[in-house]
Amino acid sequence: MNKDQICKWIETYRSRSGVPIMRMRKQWHTDTPSVQGVWHPFMFKDPQINRKTFPNEELSRFLPAEPSATEQVLKMFEEQKKEIPSQGPTKKLHSKDDVLQSK
User: Which structural domain range is residue 74 located in?
Assistant: First the structure.
């Protein structure tokens, strides 16, 4: 044995607690590494993508997961417009005197 092997064995005996070493084994086995199965990035992609030529404008554009804040506000505005029926032109008061005269 050379010097390095002797040092490794001495370090092993020095750091060992004296408790008998026992091999730990799990009691179950799976063929796949996770409960969900083996996943890859193309798992739920359309197979027709394989036939496209890249760069492709259709596949390169950004598809937001949720509507933007502006889109949400515009949608709320359109819904409110549908709920409130049009009452025609409203009378506009131009000054404080007009308000007092209307009472």
Answer: 3-83
pTM of the shown model: 0.29
Q: Is residue 102 part of a domain?
A: no
**Is position 103 within any domain?**
no
Beta carbons within 8 Å of 64's beta carbon, 6+ residues apart: none
3-state secondary structure 72-97: HHHHHHHHHHHHCCCCCCCCCCCCHH
Give dist(CA 90, CA 93) in Å, integer.
10
For 23-54, how does the pLDDT look when each residue is reduced to its tens digit (9 = 90+)?
888 887 767 666 666 778 888 888 888 888 88
